[in-house]
Amino acid sequence: MRDYILLLPLIFIFHDMEELAGFGWFFRKNPWLFERYPKVMNTYRGFTNEGFTLAVYEEFIPFFGVSLLAYYFPCSFLYGLWYGIFLSLLGHFFIHIGHTVYIRKYIPCVATSIICLPISAFILVRCAAFMNADAVTVLAAAGGIVLMLANFRVAHGVMHYVNRKINLSGN
Description:
84% of the residues lie in helices and 0% in strands. It is globular. The chain is mostly helical.
């Protein structure tokens, strides 16, 4: 199990580098998306690279932090928490692929989602074989998913705050 633990932050970094490199360009080249899909795109209205970068950095903290803790202090709770966080990332890949299929246009994040999806699924299946499915592990995995959903909201809050500050200052 320990052999796979530190792959989580590496997969996150690999995937999010595509998002960081491409989202600003993508939104500038496709302004029609904001009118056609307002529910999804309102999240990115007023997008700035600085706001998005800070949000990605904030999201990275639990990926890296929990992975390090699980690596150096192996126990059922930390393994379960790590597993839940990894499941959240796997779900994130499915969402990106779904968005691309829905709008019928490449979104910068899909290439790495397609690459990382089978790798992540393989890692999760392998690690499930090593883990005990006791109550602590299962509850910790559920907690990892909840943590990432809450963290996603915090990251978007950070992004919106920075975007507003930058857009108001005219920079």
